[in-house]
Amino acid sequence: MKEAEIRPQELFNRYLEVVRQDIKMFFADKSQFVDVECPACGCNCQEFAFEKLGFQYKICKECGSLYLSPRPTSKVIDHYYQEGKAVKFWSSNFYRETSDARRKKIYRPRAELVADILRSYSKTNNEVFTDVGAGFGIFLEEVSKQDVFQSVIGVEPAPNMADICRSKGFQVVEKPIEAVLTEDVQANLVTSFEVLEHVFSPCDFLKAINKIIVENGLILFTTLTISGFDLQVLWEHSKSIYPPHHINLISFEGMHRLVERSGYEVIQITTPGKIDLDIVVNAVREDPAIKVPRFVRHLIEKTDTKAQKAFQIFLQENNLSSHIRCIARKK
Distance between CA 315 and CA 317 in Å, rounded? Predict the structure, then answer.
């Protein structure tokens, strides 16, 4: 997989420009910002990391997670995700233009992973599957094709997205996960992909999911980790560390703590990312002024793609990719 397949540079830069416009409109009033403890381990022992677009990122001295603090209140964040132009651009332009590639490269393999997880870890009858943040329903479609659940349900708070999922024949709970009740859905396996980095409180988010999982049920989720190669190398220059969207970059160690204090037993935490090195290559090509370590520059300038592929595999196998995946069981 290449970054350009799922995140074309020109299109993504247009999206980031809209984000910068939104910041001026929605986040100029810093009186609506609040200081927070580490969203991973709950420690209040942070130090300043850097400022980006008027937002301050802190790093936890206990678990090494990077996070925004002070940050907009949950009310401000919710309002932004309902009204922000960048949010609409992502769904109406960016997502649609990359949906075919994402289906083939991301959603179909994830659906196959869900089936594998059931075979390996499930202790239930596998009756109900729920995806939190169902979006256009592409993943729901791919999970349905696996034919391993009796019911496939989406949780999607955005009305337009919820309608799209319904048009494809899926049951949808049109609420934020924090407002979903056990009467709305009880799932044997819940998934959530690339959502945790956006929410005000990752712990509250995972606890809300925990409530709708049956006894011995499973959760599978992915997010970004600051422990990963491209985020460590690019740091404040990374397009993946971008407020007000990506406000929680949980470290590998911090993820273990977050999952356990949210009411789960960790089964497996890995970093199966495939594009860390490609992201760094593209960033340095776009802006040669970005300073990277001499070895990294040597690596990304090599014409020996075999070495580059081997390096990415090394990152995957040693939990050093910035894409982190967690499988856990409800305690």
Answer: 6
